[in-house]
Amino acid sequence: MSAMPIYLDNHATTPLDPRVLDAMIPFFKEQFGNAASRNHAFGWVAEEAVEKSRQQIASLIGATAKEIIFTSGATESNNLAIKGVAEMYAERGNHIITAATEHKAILDTCKRLEKNGIRVTYLPVQANGLVDLDMLREALTGKTILVSIMYANNEIGVVQPIGEIGKLCKERGILLHTDAVQAAGKIPVDVLADNIDLLSLSGHKLYGPKGVGALYVRRRSPRVQLTAQMDGGGHERGMRSGTLNVPGIVGLGAACEIARQEMPEESKRMAYLRDKLKDRLMAELDETFINGTMESRLPNNLNISFAYVEGESLLMGINDVAVSSGSACTSATLEPSYVLKALGAGDEIAHSSIRFGIGRFNTEQEVDYVAGKVISVVKKLRELSPLYEMVKEGIDLSKVEWTAH
Ligand SMILES: Cc1ncc(COP(=O)(O)O)c(C=O)c1O
Question: I want to staple 256 with a disulfide (CB 3.0 to 4.6 A). Which of 3, 60, 139, 286 is the partner?
Answer without folding.
Answer: 60
